[in-house]
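Holo prediction. Input below; ligand is zinc ion.
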Amino acid sequence: MRIAVLSLAFLSATAMSLSSQTRPAPSVDPTVTAQGPRPLPGPVYETPGFTRAVANGTRTRTGAPGPKYWVQHPRYQIAATLDPIHNRVTGRETVVYVNHAPDALDRIAVHLRQNVFAPGVPRRQPVPITGGVTLSRVSLDGRALVLEPRPAAVPITAPPEQPPQPGQYVVDGTVMWIPLGTPLKSGDSLRLEVNWSYSPAPAPADGREGHDGHVYFQGYWYPEIAVYDDVDGWVADPYLLEAELYMDHADYDARLTVPRGWVVGATGTLMNPESVLSKAARDSVAVARRTGRVVRVLTPGPGAAGAFAASGPTATWHYVANDVRDFAWGSSDQYAWDQTRALIDSGRDTVNISSYFRLTAPAAAWRVGGARYTRDAIEQMSAYLWKYPWPQMSSMEGVLDGGGMEYPMMTLMQPWADTLSLAGDLMHETGHMWFPMQAGSNETRFPWMDEGFTQFDVAQGMKVLYGAPRRGGRPNDSEEGQRAGYTRAARAGQDHSLMVPGDEFPQDLYFTMYYNKTGQILAALRGLVGNDAFHRSFVAYGREWAGKHPEPYDFFNAMSAGTGRDLSWFFTTWFYHGWPLDQGVDSVIAVGGGDSTEIVICDMGLAPMPVPLAVTRSDGTVQRVDIPVDAWWANGGSRRARIRVATLPEITRVEIDPDQLFPDVRRENNVWKR
Ligand SMILES: [Zn+2]
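Structure of the complex:
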């Protein structure tokens, strides 16, 4: 059927003109009305890599991982010291990397993302220059490697660059490549050791980490082995400050040394509370866990020393986290620390909640809600999606000048004085613990798979707790706000394909499209297939891919398989094109002998969608009828779709999409009144 539709579209295009291959896009301006041909959505084309993965049995076309699916899982041991006097983080790590791929690897890629702050490194935004990462030792299986010698400037007449030799490593911006003398065979392992240091960038840094005086947050701070996956092999896109990250799930054992009197929050579970916290502080944590109350563990100021174990000038906090795709930590001597717990799985399980914030006026909302809203978010997202899988969740205030940032079991956020805004921000960043922290998609290339899905989930959680529509807080934490943001841009002619890598996307549309448009696409899909089928399929997709690397095609296939429908037209329309939806009532006219009335719907946009109609009659009854989406396929692409209903009792009103399931960019033409 798709092929027939395509060939018809092709014929009509060639009939129009033999010379012109392009034409102005039909306007969404209703004053122009429905001019021009109806564009028809084609099938979803996989990348060759995905098609190969299906042939290899690591992927399927049902949205589930294939029987031969594999994923890498590095193990990190890290010891790091924060020296705030000299503003320096110094680390030493050992990574054990077992090759679970069937392929032999001839090299290893390692991210050095702090190099985005080095002079001369490409990036999409200006940042303070800190010098980037200093590598003092890189070794492989105990053998020290040397930096490949490179001339500072290469004349254009120079011979082609030689690849680095075994025994060397090369640093290319934010990525280090290490060639292997002997390829790493399937099932074999290597041990990478790196000693490194860097200066945390001053706030607002890259908007994701850095330091603000004595508040430090270390994100993207250690050498991290890039993802080698079943579809693309090595995926080591540079960190350019715009798009986010792609990471393997891994195990971390981290020992973090800070000045005594500085509290450390981190991904994972604190393993040595006795050696860093006083008995009083440990008791407070225990009370919070037992009672579920919000308990103040630490208050900054003269009495703060009483919360820490007495020892030397520094303290080493030992954190362990398994099956997480990153490790981050924050530290300060200015933080208050509130502790509580979340109840999940219908009260059968608990999650420890920690919140760290300054007692300042701009951060006033944190005193009220830092711990409470983090708990609420874990409980809401666990109820809407599935159970939070880790024992701990922490939120931190500071460093950022806008919004928040997610790390596994950790979030970092701007100071908020407004409680509802903090609740929304915490719901969003905590919401990321599902997408992408569990369903580990490639955020760099497909930001909509984490940001858009989270945006949608946040609206569900906030609606349960605070109602909708609601006043106050952040408009984009609700479906109404997300719709307003997306349709405003679409009306302005800025609708955009989402299948564009994050670092190539227009920066001014990044949020509106990846976040709000995707949120609206999920809402439209829910309207199309029904809430139960949507929710069941969406959750099944996420759970299926927890700890793995879903591609867009896995999501498309999972939603089609889960709902039992061919939705390729929907995915092509909404993800691959910048096609707005703008249906309007064209006419309501009695036909034939007058017994029937024909309702004609005109499509002035580009997105084909079914037309749910409410027909109100003079006796007050409301008839609900749907025009299926196929109506737009008629005659190789139609701009008008029609349906017949009984003329009597007299029709007084016709409304398109009365439940507002779909993001129609112009609702004022959706209603016809007698
Ligand atoms: Zn986000």
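The first helix runs from residue 2 to 16. That is the main takeaway for now.
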